[in-house]
Protein 1
Amino acid sequence: MKDGLRFVDCDMHIMEPVDLFDRYLDARFKDRVLLQVGADGRPRRGTIVIDGLPTTRDAEMQQYRKRTRPGTTHSTQPLSGSRLADTGRLDFAIDRKYNAEAQVMGMAMEGVDIAVLYPTTGLSLIARDNLDPQLSLALCQAYNNWIHEFCQYSPEQLKFVAMLPVHDVHLASRELVRCVRELGAVGSFIRPNLVNGHFWHSNYWDPLLSLHEELDVTWGFHEGTGAWYSYFNDLYGENRFYRHVASHWIEMQQALIAMIIGGVFEFHPKLRVGFLEAQNSWVPGLLSRIEWDYPQYRDSHAPYLSMTPREYFRRNCWAAVEGSEPEIEATAGLIGADRMCISTDYPHFDSNFPYVSTNLLKNVPREIAAQIFMGGAHLYNFAERDFQRAAQAADRQLAAAAAGG
């Protein structure tokens, strides 16, 4: 808990071990996945090359290093810059090589009851068009098997969303079933970028959308930067500042437009969708823009819609904040604090860890903060029994630490 309030981290990240694919990838595909190695010949952290292409275009596009050492950042809010660089806040995790023990320690530092884990390298691993679907599946299975084992350290506290081979919707559906029924996944993560030209309102995705409803699990949109299929690479090129701002906001906006106007929420009324790590002050303005055009276009271009955009959002969607945005209270007044959730973004460079939850409590009234802390519970459908089990697990962790000390 955080100051007596239950807290679900809707988007906490892990740092994949450097030898994940060396250990978990199907041997038939290992010669197609190249890892960086050190002088000892063993894998080390760095860009992964798959079928001759790096997993992200950032490395090839970044022609010059903009800054070699952290320095003072200029911001009107404590949400910008390399906030974790040189602070020492992650020393405990680095010392433990970002293992599950460190993950639970980080949760305790922020007051998190239950954390839903998202990847780091895995965000860009299959983020390209025309990837061999069987290779895409093998990569997803390797990651999903590893993250399942990672969560076994404390399965009541650590939950995960599955990586899906979206290059073939039927393979993605099969992998979702396996991950939910056999491994305990609470949903999937999918980038908002178009895959092989398939728009998010395309009938192509219907089997996967329906399956999320049937399994009662969450569809989480999570963007990154530098994906091969992101058109912001062409628009903004080498300037990562441009691309980071645009990809996290604009890709999410386009996904939400497609899912509302294209009728995804009309035809999949039980679908729960999270728009994560993109803040959320863009949501009310976008909903207003859609509603502005509603009278002109609904009958001719979207006659299947039976609700207003705002009604669809409040029934099907949650959007995340990161605690210190100055617009949180105003946004809550427009879309409802109960449709908001919060991400610590641990342990990424742009996180305010371990002050994310503290910042939120300083930033908004306690009753609003309480709803936002609990937003992830509604997004992922956690119930009272889940919090009781998580609390018992946390008590066991404390007792074990005390005994060990």
Protein 2
Amino acid sequence: MEPISEPPAPEYFENAFPRGKFPRYDWVNRPVGLPAEVWSTETTHRDGQQGGLPLSTESSLRIYDILCAFTSGSGAIRQAEFFVYRDSDRAALQGALDRYKSGAPIEPTTWIRAARKDVVLIKTLGVRETGMLASASDFHTFHKFTPAGRRSAAQAYLDAVQMTLDLGIRPRLHLEDATRAPMDFIQAFVEQVLAIAQPFGESLRPKIRVCDTMGLGLPYDDVALPRSIPRIFRVLNTLGLKPADLEFHPHNDTWLIVANCLAAIRAGCGVINGTCLGKGERTGNAPLEGVLLHLIGMGYFSANPPDFTALNELTELYAEMHEPVPPKYPLFGRDAHRTRAGVHADGLNKFWWMYAPFDVPRLLGRPLEVSLTKDSGLSGLIFLIRQHRGLELQKSDPRLIALHAGLMAEFDLGRQTSMEWEELESRLEDEGL
């Protein structure tokens, strides 16, 4: 039996957990199909609004400005898509286009149905690219169209694509419900789109967005189509599509949204479409801050990363709009970095890296926090007092013991809510602190 080793110094695996940076992928074998360049596109003004965000022109532009501050010069978010069906949406689009022409980093695009009557709506708006809804599964093509079926649907889409190209606008085909769609239909349709676009050259080269509309995709190679996200993208790669031509747009209905995004990238997809803070229909869209954290870990944006601290303003805006981020939402929820356990608070006091996934205050602009409960012990009090008052107290300090005894008495009498700093602060003077 091998003895337990005792190193001369602690091993912190700093290749994977570098100080002052997000966790890094310490590759054993870097995936062969990983694109040289990856980025994201944003759909808050379309899918976020569709999912319940009450967007006015003013709030739409404020969100756009925050997203521009987040991505800054990193190239992490390159496009945002807007509805065009209401005056307020068109006004927001125009405001974003004006900002883009003045140097804002996110290009505004539109979202329409792949129908000729919708193409008419965008021909004078000044956009260079539009998304076009092209439902791909038989759930849609046999129940939306008259006459029903794949050919009728495809012909309507192709007519709209032709009209879009004739207007000099690049089409981005959104293959709705692709994870329940027959691959032979997707292949044939994409091939026909590429054939129609071929005479128009590279500037109007179509993009293909794979939509996991009901969140049914799986991140595995060893499951069959249509649910395998890697298999879908590998098939599309055989049609001559480059990583920059391919987007993935998933939903979170079955909890696999970030895993599916990473599987898509590993299979050769160059672009992830989602929303910052995960807003969207039903369970939400891909949370771009979570996806981008992993992309940074993979080595992307190393020279000029996005500024995650800018998203704190977005959490404040959503609270003002009565659409707050859930308290335990990863990274940016109110309680995402808050512990209520005494053993964790004790760890934070002794070596705060023990209970922090990375340098949260520096990278996210959010504090590590402790809430006082019946389980947070003396260590919770020590942490809060040090954090807010800069005082170093020992567990044997009689003032601390008295303060803790008073708190425990409240919990013994039935208190169920935790105590936050604001309430604790008013009690410190009573104990001479």
